[in-house]
Design brief:
By secondary structure, this protein is an alpha/beta fold. It has helices spanning 29-44, 92-112, 129-135, 165-169, 171-180, 186-191, 204-215, 220-236, 239-260, 270-277, and strands spanning 5-10, 13-18, 50-55, 118-122, 125-127, 139-143, 147-149, 184-185, 197-199. It has a single domain, classed as 2-enoyl-CoA Hydratase, Chain A, domain 1 (Alpha-Beta Complex). Helix 2 runs antiparallel to helix 9 (239-260). 43% of the residues are buried. The protein binds zinc ion (ZN). Zinc ion (ZN) binds at residues 100, 161, 250, 254.
Length: 280
């Protein structure tokens, strides 16, 4: 297991921890594939009934890596989420679409289908690409200091690649969330139904492990079938097809940015996005 992700088993619960706290757990591809390794390991271990996903340090995840020294967008990894060709060595939309289909949308969809219950344990920032990881988990337990935001409309992009917004918070608030791009505190996220529980920061791990341990008392197949039943219902409410259509629009935006400006992110980097997202 690589350093980007930590893995431990505590009784019937596997705890998977994003481990780039210096960069607020910004996700590079190395982390994405390490997460996939960890989830695979947890699924294969018959002793594991529930998976908890957390982030080391003060923040769950500030999003995709768009500027750390270990940003690895030009590195090839053996693909797992689909059979689309490698993005490396391709240009323009052909490269971007292939890459994001694999490491963003495809991976999150793959993890949503993990046949064991998953619980996100969220403190601090859960922003942009960070939302995708929390949302593809079955439950979200948030600390009181957690905040949620998708500021990518500032880049001219209609939300992150795993476009679950209208389903996890309702279409009316999804528009506000995206139009304003502001931080939504944990208490508001609870009102909206985006998270299951809000607990004091000091109790986050204990509370999450307590819930995971109680879920683990249920029979394995019953949990797997229940998860599938709810996911299928969510897809019948349009989640899967809606995400496909939004993904196309997302790539129109990337291509437009690249066509008229400096790059696919409209010239933004991690610092400019963070500064723009600071409470005024
Ligand atoms: Zn994108």
């Amino acid at each position: 297991m690589s350093d980007e992700v930590l893995y431990r088993v505590d009784g019937p619960v596997a705890v998977v921890t994003m481990n780039r706290p210096r960069y607020r757990n910004a996700q590079n591809s190395a982390m994405t594939y390490a997460l996939d390794d960890a989830f695979y390991r947890a699924v294969e271990d018959d002793g594991v009934k529930v998976i908890v996903l957390g982030g080391a340090g003060d923040h769950f995840s500030a999003g995709h890596d768009i500027g750390t020294p270990e940003r690895d967008v030009h590195v090839s990894y053996p693909r797992r989420a689909g059979l689309w060709w490698d993005h490396v060595g391709k240009s323009g939309a052909e490269s971007r679409y292939a890459r994001e289909s694999e490491v963003y949308l495809g991976m999150c969809r793959r993890w949503r289908e993990i046949p064991k219950p998953t619980v996100a344990m969220v403190q601090g920032a859960c922003v942009a690409g960070g939302l995708m990881l929390a949302w593809c988990c079955d439950m979200v337990v948030a600390a009181e200091d957690a905040f949620f935001a998708d500021p990518v409309v500032r880049m001219g992009i209609p939300g992150v690649e795993y476009f679950a917004h209208p389903w996890v918070m309702g279409p009316r608030f999804a528009k506000e969330f995206l139009f304003l791009g502001e931080r939504v505190p944990a208490a508001r996220a609870l009102e909206l139904g985006m998270v299951n529980r809000v607990v004091p920061r000091a109790d986050l791990e204990r509370s999450t492990m307590d819930i995971a341990g109680r879920i683990a008392k249920m029979p394995r197949l019953g949990l797997a079938l229940t998860k599938r039943a709810v996911n299928q219902a969510e897809d019948l409410m349009g989640l899967h097809a809606g995400m496909d259509s939004a993904f196309g629009l997302h790539h129109v935006a990337h291509a437009h940015n690249a066509e008229v400006g400096a790059d696919a992110l409209a010239g933004h980097d991690a610092r400019s996005m963070r500064d723009a997202g600071s409470p005024s």
